[in-house]
Amino acid sequence: MTPHRINARLSGPLADHVAHVVGPDGLYETPSEYIRALIRQDMAQGTAHIYAKIREGLEDIAQGRILKSHGTWEHDKAALTKSAS
After folding, report:
1. Residues 6+ apart with CB under 8 A from 63
2. Is the CB of residue 67 less than 8 Å from the CB of residue 76?
3. 7: Cα within 13 Å, side-chain hemisphere
4. Closest listed residue to residue 31, CA positions, set 41, 23, 42, 40
5. What's the whole-model pTM score?
6. Distance (Å, rounded) from C-alpha 12 to C-alpha 21?
7. 52 to 58, 61, 64: CA distances (angstroms)
8. Residue 76 CB partners (closer than 8 Å, separation 6+)
9. What is the distance between the alpha carbons of residues 30 and 23, in angstroms, rounded to a whole number?
10. From first to last of its 85 residues, what are the pLDDT tens digits of the chain?
11. How far apart are CA 34 and CA 21, in angstroms?
12. Cα–Cα distance between 10 and 68 in angstroms, integer?
């Protein structure tokens, strides 16, 4: 697989944070190492997060916590707000 190069400009708090975690006193030796670690973490959490949400939804259904959609998010949100009060 051919490696891909990504260039990003960081300023302000983002650049400060990267400078803090990279280098002799940081957790990572290079910014590239830090970015690769963030991507791996995102990949792992992304899948786990999706499956956790699916399990939550299935548990809600099993417990009878369902809402018939009114067709739009605005209508559904209003119905949820009304039922909560």
Report:
1. none
2. yes
3. 0
4. 23
5. 0.53
6. 15
7. 10, 14, 18
8. 67, 69, 70
9. 7
10. 778 888 899 999 999 999 999 999 899 999 999 999 999 988 888 788 888 889 999 999 999 888 788 888 888 888 888 877 7
11. 8
12. 45
Tokens of 18: 């990267």
Contacts 24+ apart (CB under 8 A), 24-29: none
Residue owning tokens 């809600």: 60
The conformational region for residue 64 under phi > 0 = left, psi -120 to 50 = alpha, else beta, is: left
Count the residues in the chain: 85
Contact 22, 34 (CB under 8 A): yes
Mapped onto helix, strand or coil, the DSSP state of residue 75 is helix
